[in-house]
Each structure stands twice: as structure tokens, then as C-alpha cells.
Amino acid sequence: MNWDDLRIFLAVARAGTLSAAGQRLGIDATTVARRVARLEARLGRTLFELTPAGHALTPRGAELLAHAEAMESAALALSASDEEGGHPGG
């Protein structure tokens, strides 16, 4: 699974629209839409439902959100550890 696709998924889930997610990420809304569609195709699931208010998570999307947030938290913890003089890489 591509982390960048999950990062874009998280942005849409949090922002509620493709354009707001794109603005947060500094990318075009059409790129956001394409990447979400690619993730949905790869997973064989619909992750968002289009509503008058924007993009709402489907039950499958909510399930993925929990996993994606856990991955994000782990990545942020690793990054913080590196910045604090964590173990040397190699």
C-alpha cells in the first residue's frame, strides 16, 4: 500500500472535500480525486460517499481511517525519535 495515497485519504477524511484536502497538501483537487480513486480500486472498496456537504466516509472508509491514523502516529513517533537523537540508522 502506498503511504502517499493513505496520506491523501487522511486529508480528505479530515477536510471533508477534495479541494480542501488539496489545499492542505499543496496539490490539485483532481490529483486528490485520482489518488483516492486509485486507493479505492486497489482495495476494492468505496471509501467515501459524496454528500451535499462533501465527502463522507463509508463504513469501510471509517475502518481504514483507524488504521491509517495508527500508521501516521507511528511514523510521527519515529520522526520525533530521530529528531531527539534516537538510535543511529544504518
Could you explain how this protein is built, in words?
With 90 residues, the chain is mainly alpha-helical. The chain is built from four helices and two strands, in the order H-H-H-E-E-H. The chain has a two-stranded antiparallel ribbon. A hairpin with a 2-residue loop joins strand 1 (48-51) and strand 2. The model has no long low-confidence stretch (mean pLDDT 92).
Please provide the count of β strands: 2
Largest sheet: 2 strands, antiparallel
Radius of gyration: 15 Å
**Level of helix content?**
55-70%
Going across the biggest sheet, name each strand in turn.
1-2
Order of helices and strands: HHHEEH
Percent of sequence in beta strands = 5-15%
pLDDT average, as an integer? 92
Structural class: mainly alpha
| Low-pLDDT runs | none
Counted by DSSP, the helix tally is 4
Terminal CA distance: 24 Å
Q: Give the overall form.
A: globular
Provide a concise account of the structure shown.
This protein has 90 residues and is mainly α. The chain has four helices and two strands.
List the helices and strands and how they pair.
Elements: H1 3-15, H2 18-25, H3 29-43, E1 48-51, E2 54-57, H4 59-83
Antiparallel strand pairs: 1-2
Can you give keywords for this protein?
9% strand; mainly alpha; two-stranded antiparallel sheet; 90 residues; globular; 4 helices
